[in-house]
Give the backbone structure.
Amino acid sequence: MPRLNALIAACLAVAFVIAAAASPIAAQMTAVTGMSEAGSHPVTGIAGTPAPLRLAFLNDNVPTRRHIDLPLSESDATLRVPSQVRLLLFSPHPDDETLGAGGLAQRVLKRGGSVRVVWMTNGDGFLDGVRSEFEIAEPTDHDFIKYGTMRQAEALKAISEWGLEEGDAIFLGFPDGGLHPLWEAHWSVSKPYTSPHTRRNRSTYPNTYTRAVQYSGATLVEQIMGVMREYSPDWVVLPDPRDHHPDHSATGAFVLEALRKLRASGERPFSETQAFTYLVHYPAYPISQGWMTSVNRPSAGGALSHGQALNGTQWVTLPIDSDELEGKRRALARHDSQAEPLGPFLKLFMMHYEMFGRLRPSQIMEAPLEFAARYRKPNS
Ligand SMILES: [Zn+2]
């Protein structure tokens, strides 16, 4: 749907210019010009139907009114990265790792630490992307899988820009666009979820972390716990459960549930593991800091919930230096298949800072339970 994509791009470009005039942060972004083709972001689509949600997510990030911008100095604190941190970075789709924490990953490596990136999905449910990439109106399951394979390769190229290798990458191979349904209706492995795109109820990709595992909420938590046990991270970085994209909010909840279970069991070193969240799809994010007021209102996860656990999350800022920003831009450019549909949106994230919600231990323990209480149906 190239015409629609062009319209989205034009709207975003206009919004960006408006924001640049109104916001000192956006003005800072205008200094970052001449960026190369950026990657894009997979958004849920159902095979054979348009993906109306996609527009909604994109528009979420575009400010509809002027926000009052807080100077960075008031945004709580600066994130300091100690030496030799073991960072475990969770990414719902290929490209989120770069958008949300590409600067942090590079900083950790620069400080002698290590980074492992976990992709929940291969981004194979992006209907418009598949149509555009292969120039076909009605993709088959094989087309979606071919697209996911391509996006895996792009993800590896992206992190190679930071010096990471294939051994630093984990692909869980769970269904793009299907993570939230795992919470809601497919928690038990006796009710596995089948992707409407790949038409599989388990990953068919050869390099999947555990290929035989069927898609369910319970199995996904086990997979994440397995990754955490193997790697023993000091810091876990995850999508904020309040992100408006269901794959993102569900990823955040799954990661916190895994960490909660490890902490509850008393397994070391998880009592010391710190958790940081990041946003991608949230109204006005990252253009203006008006989001900070709304995100800290009571909310358990997703756009429509009203929980309490994440209320009052401390947001910390990581200033990104020019080399790190260039590393983010190079990584984003490696997500080549995504350049056409959503480039302007993704360029919004090429800024001289990243922001993270630093969770308190009580939030790690309570947030996933709250999410489950709201979204997990009985006997799911
Ligand atoms: Zn994403």
Residues 333 and 340 are 11 Å apart (CA to CA). The first helix runs from residue 2 to 22.
